[in-house]
Design brief:
heterodimer; A: 582 residues; alpha/beta; 6-stranded parallel β-sheet; 36% helix; globular; B: alpha/beta
C-alpha cells in the first residue's frame, strides 16, 4: 500500500483488521453479541488465514491455544458470558503461556443490550492473571490488537482485548496498514511448560507471578497509556469508551487514559494522582481500577458517585462531577416496544402449541427466549447457554417425574450444539423422563445467522457434512426422537402430548428454517377478509406483529410485515384468512 | 466546527443501519470526522432501535446525549415520541407518518397515543412524510427508509451526486437504482428548505 488508506469501520471490523495486520493465522469463535462481527469480518481474509465457528467458546479458546502452541499467532473471540465457558482453558493457558501470540477478545455488554448479565471481564482477567488492553475507538481497536500480540509474545502470556457493546458497535475512522509477515515459531517439546499436572503447574505458577510483576513495572512505559495534562483541578483516570464521555463532558480536565487495565501501571497512576487536586476514576461496571488505586493508598472518587450498572454518558459525568443542571426535557410516557419474534418465525408456531397445551418451558439462550413474554408466555426459565435441559433434569430429580409432567425443555439448534448436548447426555445417563424440544431453525438466529456444525456450512463458506441432530440424539441412546415440521401445528400438538405423557426421555426436533434466512424465500402473504372475520381473536393469540385489529374489531394483516407462514390461517376457524401469491 | 448530532430511531428491521451508514458515508466523503453507534443483536428483533451519527472537526463519544440532537429522524410515530426529548430546543424532527403497534398495544395492555405529530409540532420543527406510500408507488415498500433520508438530505449541505455515490457504494448493486429513485422522491417531496 503506497499511501495510508482511511476507512470507516465498526469497532469489531477494526479488531478483525488488527488481527489481520498482526499476521494472525488461526481464529476460532462462537457467535455472541457484541462480538460476532469480528469473525464475520475476519473471514474476508480467508485466503491468508483460517477462521472458524466452533461449537462453543471453550472449544474456540482451545483451538486458538493449539494454534499458538504450533507456533502461529492465534485468537479467539466471544461475548463476556462466553468467557465463562472458556475460563477453564483460559486460567490454565495463563500458566502455560504462548508460542505464537495468543489473544482472546472479550466483548462486555454494559446495559445488557443483548445479554443475561452485566459481568466485567476485567475481574476474570485479574483472577486468571492475564493482561487486558482496552481500546476507546475503532482506530485503537485495530492498534491494540497488534499491540496485544506483541505483549503476548514478549511476556509469554495470553492477552485479553476487552471491548464493550458501545465500542464494538460504533463506527470510526481507521487507517489501514499492510499485513505483517510473522514467521512461525519452531515447536520444541517442553512438558514442564505445556503439560499442566501438579508438579509442572507449581513451577509455572511462579512464572505467572513473576511475569505479572514485570509487566506491571513495564506497563508504565507502554505507548497505549497516555497522560493528558490540562487543568489540574480535576484529574480523571479512564479507559475504553468512558474516556470519550470524559473528553466530551469535561474537556479541560487532565486525564490519564489507560490502554492497559490489568496489571495497572502503578508508578504512572501515582505520579498522575500527585499532580491533580481531585482524582476521579471513571469506569463502567465494576470498580476494578478504583479498588486497586485505593489499595495503594491513593485518595480518589469513584463508585460513590457513579453506578456499577449500565452504560455511562457525558451527561452523567456532567451531573456527577460538575453538578450541572442540564434542564432536560422529561421523556414522554409511551408504551414500551420490547423485542419480539419476527413475523413468520417458526418458534411462534411451536410456542402456540405449547401454550395451547398449558405447558411450562425451561428455556435457553436465543431468539426463542422471547417466548417468555406475553402473549406467548411459555418460557419460565433462562439461565445460560445449554441450561434448559439440565434445569429440567434438576427439577425432576428434586420433585419427581410427575412434577415435570406439564414441563418441557426448549433449546435452539445452535445452543444445543453449544452445550445442550452435554446436558442431554446427562439426562439420558441419569434417567430423566423429560421432553426436550430442539427448535431447529438451521442457524444461530439471534446473533445474525451464523452457521454451526449442524448446518453443513462453515464460516469460510465451505460445504461440509452436517451433523444430524436426530442421529446425534439417537446415538446417545434416546429411543424416542421425533422430527416435526414446526408449522404443522396439528401433528406437533399430537407428538408433544404423547411424548410428555411418556415415562422416558424424549426429544422432539421441530424443523423450519429461520424466516430471515435467504434460503427461505417468501412466496405469499396472508390476507384477512373482514366480511368473514368473526373477531374471535384466535389469530391474535400468537402475538404476530403483522396482525392488528381494525377499529371495527376485525383483523388486518400488514402486507409489509407478513411473511406468509400461515400460522394465523391455520388458527382461523372461519376461513377468513387466505393466501395471496406474490 | 461544532459537532452535529443526528439520531435515527425506529423499529428493529426497518433499516436504520443502512440509513445511518449512508449518512455517515456522505459525511466522511466530505472530510468530517464521523462516529456512529448502532444497535445489533436482540433489540433488532422488532424492538425499539436507535442509531447515532455525529460529525464535525473532532468527535469524541459515539452517542448523542439527551437534549443534544440537531436532527431526529423517526421511522415510526411512537418512536418519534419516545426519543423526542433527545432533541435540542431548536432541533428538527423528520417523522415517517406510520403507525406500528407495539405488542403491549396489540394486546390491549397499553394505548397508542393519539395526535403524536400534532403534539410534537407544538414543541419542535416537525417535517412529516408518508414515506411508505411513496415507496409503494415505486414498487418496493422496503425503500421507505431511503425516501425519508431524501427528505432529510434536502435540508443538508451535501450534493445529490455525493448522496448517490454513497448509495451506490453501500447498497447491493441490484438495489442501487431503486434506492437512488427513492432518495430522489424524498429529496423532491418538499420544495421548502430549512438548513439543518
Amino acid at each position: 500500500m503506497s499511501e495510508a488508506k482511511k476507512v470507516m469501520m465498526l469497532g469489531n471490523a477494526a479488531i478483525a483488521r488488527g488481527a489481520y495486520e498482526a499476521g494472525v493465522k488461526v481464529s476460532a469463535a462462537y457467535p455472541g453479541t457484541p462480538s460476532t462481527e469480528i469473525s464475520e469480518n475476519l473471514v474476508q481474509y480467508k485466503d491468508e488465514l483460517y477462521c472458524e465457528w466452533s461449537p462453543n467458546e471453550k472449544v474456540a479458546a482451545e483451538v486458538a491455544i493449539g494454534a499458538s502452541m504450533a507456533g502461529v499467532r492465534a485468537m479467539c473471540s466471544m461475548k463476556h458470558v462466553g468467557v465463562n465457558v472458556a475460563s477453564d482453558p483460559l486460567y490454565t493457558v495463563s500458566y502455560i503461556g504462548v508460542s505464537g501470540g495468543l489473544v482472546l477478545v472479550a466483548a462486555d455488554d454494559p446495559g445488557m443490550y443483548s445479554s443475561q448479565n452485566e459481568q466485567d471481564t476485567r475481574m476474570i482477567a485479574r483472577a486468571a492473571h492475564v493482561p487486558v488492553l482496552e481500546p476507546s475507538d475503532s482506530q485503537e481497536a485495530k492498534d491494540y490488537m497488534i499491540e496485544a500480540f506483541r505483549i503476548s509474545e514478549e511476556y509469554d502470556t495470553p492477552v485479553i482485548l476487552r471491548t464493550t457493546t458501545r465500542l464494538a458497535h460504533s463506527q470510526g475512522m481507521v487507517e489501514l496498514c499492510d499485513r505483517t509477515d510473522v514467521p512461525d515459531r519452531t515447536y520444541e517439546r517442553d512438558i514442564a511448560k505445556r503439560v499442566m499436572m501438579p508438579a509442572m503447574a507449581k513451577g509455572r505458577h511462579l512464572v505467572v507471578e513473576e511475569r505479572e510483576k514485570r509487566l506491571e513495572a513495564d506497563s508504565c512505559d507502554l505507548a497505549v497509556n497516555r497522560v493528558e495534562m490540562r487543568d489540574t483541578k480535576i484529574g480523571v483516570i479512564a479507559s475504553g469508551i468512558p474516556y470519550q464521555y470524559v473528553r466530551e463532558a469535561i474537556p479541560d480536565a487532565s486525564v490519564l487514559k489507560l490502554g492497559i487495565v490489568n496489571p495497572l501501571p502503578r508508578k504512572l497512576i501515582e505520579d498522575f494522582a500527585a499532580k491533580v487536586d481531585r482524582l476521579y476514576i471513571i469506569e463502567e461496571l465494576e470498580p476494578l481500577i478504583e479498588l486497586q488505586v485505593r489499595a495503594w493508598g491513593i485518595d480518589c472518587i469513584g463508585k460513590e458517585i457513579f453506578t456499577v450498572q449500565g452504560e455511562y454518558s457525558a451527561n452523567m459525568i456532567r451531573k456527577a462531577i460538575l453538578h450541572e443542571d442540564l434542564a432536560l426535557t422529561t421523556p414522554a410516557d409511551v408504551p414500551g416496544r420490547p423485542p419480539i419474534l419476527c413475523p413468520g418465525c417458526p418458534h411462534r408456531s411451536v410456542y402456540t402449541v405449547l401454550a395451547g397445551l398449558k405447558l411450562h418451558a425451561a428455556g435457553d439462550i436465543g431468539c426463542y427466549t422471547l417466548g417468555a413474554i406475553a402473549p406467548l408466555s411459555v418460557v419460565d426459565t433462562s439461565v445460560c447457554m445449554g441450561s434448559s435441559i439440565s434445569t429440567l433434569h434438576g427439577m425432576e430429580k428434586a420433585k419427581g417425574k410427575d412434577y415435570i409432567r406439564n414441563w418441557v425443555a426448549v433449546i435452539g439448534d445452535s445452543t444445543f450444539m453449544h452445550t445442550g448436548v452435554n446436558a442431554l447426555m446427562n439426562s439420558f445417563y441419569n434417567q430423566s423422563t423429560g421432553t426436550v424440544l430442539i427448535l431447529d431453525n438451521s442457524t444461530t438466529g439471534m446473533t445474525g445467522h451464523q452457521d454451526h456444525a449442524a448446518t453443513g456450512r462453515t464460516l469460510q463458506g465451505d460445504t461440509v457434512p452436517a451433523i444430524s441432530i436426530y442421529d446425534l440424539c439417537r446415538s446417545i441412546g434416546i429411543r424416542s426422537v421425533t422430527e416435526v415440521d414446526a408449522f404443522d401445528i396439528q401433528t406437533l400438538e399430537k407428538v408433544v402430548r404423547e411424548e410428555v405423557a411418556k415415562d422416558e426421555l424424549s426429544v422432539i426436533i421441530t424443523r423450519f428454517p429461520c424466516v430471515m434466512l435467504k434460503q427461505r424465500p417468501v412466496t405469499h402473504r396472508c390476507v384477512s377478509d373482514p366480511d368473514k372475520c368473526r373477531k374471535c381473536g384466535m389469530c391474535l393469540k400468537p402475538g404476530c406483529p403483522a396482525i392488528t385489529k381494525r377499529e371495527d374489531g376485525t383483523v388486518a394483516i400488514d402486507d409489509t410485515l407478513c411473511n406468509g407462514c400461515d400460522l394465523c390461517k391455520q388458527l382461523c376457524r372461519f376461513s377468513a384468512i387466505s393466501d395471496e401469491l406474490l | 466546527m461544532v459537532t452535529k448530532n443526528i439520531m435515527i430511531v425506529g423499529v428493529g428491521g426497518q433499516g436504520t443501519l443502512l440509513t445511518s451508514r449512508i449518512l455517515g458515508g456522505v459525511m466522511t466523503d466530505s472530510g468530517y470526522e464521523v462516529k456512529m453507534s448502532e444497535v445489533h443483536g436482540m433489540a433488532q428483533r422488532g424492538g425499539s432501535v436507535v442509531t447515532f451519527v455525529r460529525y464535525g472537526s473532532e468527535v469524541f463519544e459515539p452517542i448523542v446525549e439527551e437534549g443534544c440532537a440537531d436532527v431526529l429522524i423517526a421511522f415510526e410515530k411512537l418512536e418519534a415520541l419516545r426519543y423526542a426529548h433527545f432533541l435540542k430546543p431548536d432541533g428538527v424532527l423528520i417523522v415517517n407518518d406510520q403507525r406500528m403497534d407495539p405488542m403491549p398495544v396489540v394486546m390491549g395492555a397499553a394505548e397508542y397515543p393519539g395526535n403524536i405529530i400534532e403534539d410534537l409540532s407544538k414543541q419542535y420543527t416537525v417535517i412529516s412524510v408518508d414515506a411508505l406510500s411513496e415507496a409503494k408507488k415505486l414498487g418496493n415498500a422496503q425503500v421507505f427508509n431511503v425516501v425519508i433520508l431524501g427528505v432529510a438530505a434536502k435540508h443538508m449541505d451535501f450534493t445529490i451526486q455525493q448522496w448517490n455515490a454513497v448509495i451506490e457504494r453501500i447498497v447491493k448493486p441490484q438495489f442501487a437504482d431503486i434506492n437512488k429513485k427513492a432518495f430522489d422522491v424524498g429529496y423532491n417531496l418538499y420544495s421548502e428548505r430549512k438548513k439543518l
